[in-house]
């Protein structure tokens, strides 16, 4: 995709959402079940859509929540934790969900004063209250017009495909039947019932941080920290962390702005709260010299973006490599391994080999790390899209969903402990292991084209070479035997992976070269040619 002329620039007023219209559309537009795009569809991280086009409306939330209530009826014995982020649609969606959950007589803990709750905090709460589950109302880093709904099961992590398929199919059945099976009470009645309990999510999480991050060394170092809350659900958490641990930390963008007017536009000219994008993070990057280290998080705080004076915004793969190497050397996690997605950098493999740690490769989606973390097969699970989590100092579970806050705070611990910010740390890794060049590009794809990519087989690929080198391996399944929803082609000095987006009408090309940028461009070009050849047979 071409880079927009708005990329990296402060969002102009004419692209800001009309919040009143968006909320009105949530209640007044009904999904057209003749359109596939209006169906409930759980991708790698829940159902997402916009109220403006009939893909995320009150009817969807009524149906999904009823489906969740029915699913958990005989399976979950304890309370349900619910949280939401700061997208404009999240508040009405949460209130709709509460009306249904109460009518189904489910005990629900929600943030007092209808505050915002990060995704990892819900996972943390589930794991510290055995037998509970959770819902997070969030479309992650998607544009301000979008909404999202995610279900986390009793293991604290994103529900697996078997569960989400059951919820998805039942929700669509409920929609097609005109919502006749939905149980619902008024919000006033729900709040007056015994089933809804206002809860302080903030302090239990904040106080517990010392068991996973060395908060003492951060405090003693007096490192000057810049914490960009990016108007997201962790605003109150960074304020509380600063106060509770007495840190030299400046917190900004810590007030909700449903238009996200303070954001800089992403590469396509849209507002997208993607803390891994140098375009979206341009505002924080401008101020990098004002802090010893700075960072930001996406709207539901499950992703991280690390900014240093020396390196600017770190490539997510670079920071994953740094975090893994640091934890291997400064925690007692042996003999546990490391989980990475198949589209993450091979630098991780080299770091793990050097530390004598086994690598488990998975398809894209953090849900694939839930069982390995829970079963103590891995101490760290990380995605190339800047999402990761790891175990407590005592090897016990912290969260089984991505946690952007422990990853940002870990970057400060690394600086305090080693005297190197993560950018310099990574530079030292490249001196030891080489300096791979990695990039992801997106291209338009229809729903039909995405389905074709998702179900590609080795036999569909007729190309024998990749950037002038023989294709050594074609991968369609991960180490755990699960399909990767696309494929990965590996040659001697580089690889490419092709997979459709679960939330947008695009497909993604991941590529990494062990030679140089020109070789990377050649890998990307030939990957596009391979996809075009597949599409031409449609």
Features:
538 residues; alpha/beta; Alpha-D-Glucose-1,6-Bisphosphate, Chain A, domain 3; TATA-Binding Protein; 3 domains; seven-stranded mixed β-sheet; five-stranded mixed β-sheet; 20% strand; globular
Structure description:
- The protein has 538 residues and is α/β, with parallel strands linked by helices.
- The protein is built from 17 helices and 23 strands.
- Helix 11 packs parallel to helix 12 (347-354).
- The longest helix has 19 residues, at 517-535.
Topology:
Elements: H1 19-28, E1 42-43, E2 46-50, H2 58-72, E3 80-84, H3 90-103, E4 108-111, H4 119-127, E5 133-137, E6 146-152, H5 161-176, H6 187-192, E7 196-199, H7 202-208, H8 215-221, E8 225-228, H9 235-245, E9 249-252, H10 282-286, E10 293-296, E11 305-308, E12 312-313, H11 316-330, E13 337-341, H12 347-354, E14 359-362, H13 367-374, E15 378-383, E16 387-390, H14 404-418, H15 422-433, E17 437-444, H16 447-454, E18 465-466, E19 469-470, E20 473-477, E21 483-491, E22 494-500, E23 506-513, H17 517-535
Parallel strand pairs: 3-4, 3-5, 4-7, 8-9, 8-10, 13-14, 13-15
Antiparallel strand pairs: 1-2, 2-6, 5-6, 10-11, 11-12, 15-16, 17-23, 18-19, 20-21, 21-22, 22-23
């Amino acid at each position: 995709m071409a880079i927009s002329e708005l990329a990296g620039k402060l969002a102009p007023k004419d692209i800001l959402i009309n919040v009143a219209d968006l909320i009105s559309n949530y209640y007044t537009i009904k999904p057209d079940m003749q359109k596939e795009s209006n169906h409930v569809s759980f991708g790698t991280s829940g159902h997402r859509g916009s109220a403006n086009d009939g893909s995320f409306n009150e009817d969807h939330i009524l149906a999904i929540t009823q489906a969740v209530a029915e699913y958990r009826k005989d399976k979950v014995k304890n309370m349900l934790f619910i949280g939401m982020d700061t997208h404009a649609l999240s508040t009405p969606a949460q209130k709709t969900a509460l009306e249904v959950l109460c009518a189904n007589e489910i005990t629900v803990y929600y943030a007092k004063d209808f505050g915002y709750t990060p995704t990892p905090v819900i996972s943390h709460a589930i794991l510290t209250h055995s037998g509970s589950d959770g819902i997070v109302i969030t479309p992650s880093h998607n544009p301000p017009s979008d909404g999202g709904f995610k279900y986390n099961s009793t293991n604290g992590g994103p529900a697996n495909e078997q569960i989400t398929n059951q919820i998805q199919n039942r929700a669509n059945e409920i929609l097609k039947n005109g919502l006749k099976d939905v149980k619902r009470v008024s919000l006033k009645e729900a709040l007056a019932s015994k089933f809804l309990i206002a809860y302080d999510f903030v302090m239990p999480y904040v106080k517990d941080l010392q068991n996973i991050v060395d908060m003492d060394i951060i405090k003693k170092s007096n490192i000057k920290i810049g914490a960009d809350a990016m108007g997201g659900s962790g605003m109150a958490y960074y304020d509380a962390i600063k106060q509770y641990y007495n840190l030299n930390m400046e917190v900004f963008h810590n007030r909700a702005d449903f238009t996200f007017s303070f954001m800089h536009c992403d590469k396509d000219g849209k507002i997208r709260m993607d803390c891994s994008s140098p375009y979206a993070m341009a505002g924080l990057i401008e101020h990098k010299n004002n802090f010893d280290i700075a960072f930001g998080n996406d709207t539901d705080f499950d992703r991280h973006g690390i900014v240093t004076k020396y390196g600017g915004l770190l490539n997510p793969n670079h920071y994953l490599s740094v975090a893994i190497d640091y934890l291997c050397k400064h925690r007692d996690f042996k003999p546990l391994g490391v989980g990475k997605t198949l589209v993450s950098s091979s630098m991780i493999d080299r770091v793990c080999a050097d530390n004598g740690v086994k690598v488990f490769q998975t398809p894209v989606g953090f849900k694939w790390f839930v069982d390995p973390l829970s079963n103590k097969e891995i101490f760290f699970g990380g995605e190339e899209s800047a999402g990761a989590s790891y175990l407590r100092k005592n090897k016990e579970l912290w969260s089984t969903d991505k946690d952007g806050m422990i990853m940002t705070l870990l970057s400060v611990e690394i600086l305090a402990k080693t005297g190197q910010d993560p950018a310099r740390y990574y530079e030292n890794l490249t001196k030891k292991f080489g300096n791979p060049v990695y990039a992801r590009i997106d291209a338009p794809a229809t729903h039909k084209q995405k389905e074709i990519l998702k179900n590609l087989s080795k036999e569909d690929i007729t190309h024998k070479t990749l950037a002038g080198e023989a294709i050594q391996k074609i991968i369609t399944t991960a180490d755990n035997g699960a399909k990767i929803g696309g494929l990965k082609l590996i040659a001697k000095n580089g690889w490419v992976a092709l997979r459709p987006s679960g939330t947008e009408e695009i497909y993604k090309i991941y590529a990494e070269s062990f030679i140089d940028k020109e070789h990377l461009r050649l890998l990307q070009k030939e990957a596009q040619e391979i996809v075009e050849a597949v599409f031409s047979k449609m």
